[in-house]
Specification:
91 residues, Glutaredoxin, 3 helices, globular
Amino acid sequence: MNGQHVSIPLVLFVAGDAPRTTAAVENLQRALIEFADRNFQLEVVNVFESAGRAIAHRVLVTPTLLAPGSSRRLVGDLSEPTQLRYFLQTI
């Protein structure tokens, strides 16, 4: 199987449409452009609507970016490009 066809799931837990939510989504979308060849599949989860999922993944603050199947997580508005790039490169 060609590795380019394997989806890499990402889950971004957010709290409604708060300014940090908007910033995190925009920062992540910009970063994902650099990694278009990696086939990331982003799911945005609003903790106000899916509190159970947040609890199950031990998400205590938002925004939190997770790579399911990995213990990796990145917390905050994802505005630090070096940290975000490293996260995406290493999952």
